[in-house]
Structures are given as structure tokens and as C-alpha cells.
Write a structure and sequence with these properties.
By secondary structure, this protein is mostly helical. Helix 5 packs antiparallel against helix 13. It is built from 13 helices and no strands.
Length: 310
Amino acid sequence: MVLEIYHIIILIFIGALVGISMSFVGQTGQGVVVPLILLITGDVLLAIAVNVINDFIAATSVAINYVRKKQYYLSKNIIILIIISLIASFLGVLILITTPLSTIFGWFLPAFIILLGSTILSKGFPTSERLKEMVHKISQRFLKYKKEDTGLEKIENMSENIDEKSIKNGDFIESIIEPYSKSFFLLAIIMGIIVGLNSGMFGANSGLIITLVLIILYGYPLKKSVGTALILSIIMCIFTFVTYQILGYTFKGQFYFDLELIIYLGIGSFLTGFIISNYVQKLSAKAMGRGMGAAMILLGLISLIFYFIT
């Protein structure tokens, strides 16, 4: 297909937004990229596949700076999460390609994006501080259920140590779930399924979900969890994109790939992802979140109107 000049400008701009969002907590660009590509091409599966490869580009550009600063940690403990995620991603792609489920993306995604954009516009983008606060709240709720097993005094000490260790060890958050317990493996499997299905069915790199899992289940420091999540999301993106091509050709007789769309999106994503990830802590996340929220609402409305008109 031949893109108009305004298509190119919008693609680069949206790609730039993805690079910025990826710089914070590995947030996928699915919310803005899929509706845009759907608006331009009308092909749901192509839109998802393009977003997956663009997430790969954005995550790679941001991960470069995290790796350079050694803000990552790969261990054998996360293998189960990766394996389950990859299996679930394959199943997610298979379900989407072989069932009529993909037809809901014509109206469901734009409506969902409008809701998500409204939330971001009102509450701002999820910053490191907000993520940490979220984890603290989750830990408090979980620890209440553990009173009978651990004793009240131990629970209170664990709660106090979270803030204390955050100050001493640079955003260190102790693992909330006891490592290698039945609950640990059960949650690792459940979260792996969520990550995989989110990637396979919705074309999201699941960076934010992986970040939360690494903090809660594995006790990763916040910055290292983001860096590690980016690396894992790169693996997810490659696997999911290849799966879309293989299953797409097998069941639909076509590949879901558009080099022109990927190049223009990738230019914006790579440049802003690489630059902003160096200065992410100095930016106003509130202002950026509002701008992104407004853009998501606008694109969601346009996509929704386009769906009903056609």
C-alpha cells in the first residue's frame, strides 16, 4: 500500500510516543499502534503483528541504556516464567488466527483504548513511585492473609523492612511470596499464562506485567526489574512475531508484515526510546501521561468512527 505524507507523520509521532512509554516501565505501544494500523489497513492481524515488531524495536532501544548501566539481572529462576509465557503466546496467536475472535478488535479495542486513555489522562502515566506504592499495597493485603502462618510481629517487621530496604539498597523490594513455595510456582505459572496470552492475542509485549511479576515474585529491585523485563519482552516479541508469520501462512496463506509501516513506526520508537531512557527520571511523567492519554482517546474515537462507517 502507498502511504500518504500525513500517514508517515502520524506513524513517526505514534512511534515516538511508544518509545517514551517504553522508557518508563516497558509499557507496550499496543494501545495506540493497533488502532492506528487498523484504521489505515483494516487488518486486525496485520495491526497486531506490526505492533509486536515495533514493541521489539522500542524495547531494544530502551534496553540498550539499561544494559549499559547494568540495570538488569537474568537468573535461572525466571526460566519457568519464560517457558509458560512462550507456550501461552503460541496458543494466543493460534486462537486469534483460527477463530472469529479477531472481529471484536474492530469495536472492542478502540472502546478499550478510549477507556484506558481516559484513565491515563486523569491519573497520569504509571511512574516508578506509583508502581512502588502499588506493590506496597499488594504486600500489605497479602501479609494480612499470612498472619496465621508467620505471626503478627514478623509481619509487622517485614512491612517496615520494605521501606527501610528501599532507602538503603536503592529501591530494593523484598519478595512478597516465599521463594520456591507452591504459591510461588502457582503464581509464576498463572502470570506466565497472562503474559503469554497478552502477547499472543493482543500483541502487547507485557513489559509492565513482567516488571510487576519480577518485583513481587522474585524480589527484584525496581530499576533492575524494568531492565530485565525489557530483555524478556524482546524475547516475547520475537517469538510472537515469528509465530504470527508461521501460523498466518499456515492457516491464512499470508504473512502479516508491512515493511513501510514498521520502518516509520520504528524510526520514532527507536529514537525517542534511546534518548528518553537516558533522562526518564527527569521528565514530568504527569504531563507526558496526559498527552499520551489525550492521543489514545483521539485515536480510539477515530478508529471507532471508522469501524461504524465502514
